[in-house]
Amino acid sequence: MFKLKTIQQSWAATVLLLVAVLAYIAIPKIQAGRHLDSLFEKAQCNLNHFTSTQDCEQAVREIGKDKSARATEMLLVLANQTQLPILDSKTGVPLLTDSEIGKLAIFQLEDRSDPIIPIRLSTLIRRDVPLDTRESVSEYLANHKCEKECASNIRNYLDEIQAGKKNNEDEALEQSNMQASKDERVVSDIHQQQSKVYDNLELALGNKPVETFKKKIK
Question: For 112-116, which contacts have Cβ atoms below 8 Å and span 24 or more sequence positions?
Fold first, then answer.
């Protein structure tokens, strides 16, 4: 009886020790997960959590320091921000646009090796995506492997442009009655930025940009 009691006590102690070890391992992960969730809420800059543009940007950078797959997914979501920009309550001027958060998120993805990143980012190479975001994505793709599905997404976009379909910024300029739409410098800056995107995309496909796409659309 004494031996059985000793064995039971030994098993109980072992179980308690195991529970303590698992808790020691699990609690920091749970806390880290909650911290990531909190950062993600701030990084989205929505009206429910907005405090300042600096807080939004810093939250994106903090997520970037976490190299987990979960953090990578958060950055990919932020790269494709679709919410309205935060506006100044007095002037109505945007304080921080989606494309700025998107660009910062894309920058945080630079040193990650997950092959899904180029594929997911290449889905942002579309005519309806803001030009600034398209430019940041094109820069990323020009410096990382872009294969199969990634390359297909790029080709689809370039084929549409070559066929005469317009980017959203071109349509906005045509439809706008604002003086800026008549400013040759504004139009020139947009075209230069677009040319940079086309060059980067040709590089991502392994082509020499000066010899290919831009000549085709002139």
Answer: 112/67, 112/72, 114/69, 114/72, 115/145
Show me where the domains of the chain are located.
7-112, 115-218
**Among the residues of the chain, which ranges form H helices?**
2-43, 53-65, 69-79, 98-108, 116-122, 131-142, 149-162, 168-175, 184-204, 213-217
Looking at the whole model, is its pTM more than 0.70? yes
Task: Work out the number of other CB atoms within 10 angstroms of the CB of residue 97.
Answer: 17
- Region of poorest pLDDT, from 54-68, 85-99, 153-167, 182-196: 85-99
Q: What whole-number distance in Å separates Cα of residue 55 and Cα of residue 108?
A: 16
Query: Which tokens is 181 given?
Result: 């739409």
Q: pLDDT tens for residues 119-139?
A: 999 999 999 998 889 999 999
The closest of 167, 102, 85, 162 to 137, measured between CA atoms, is 102
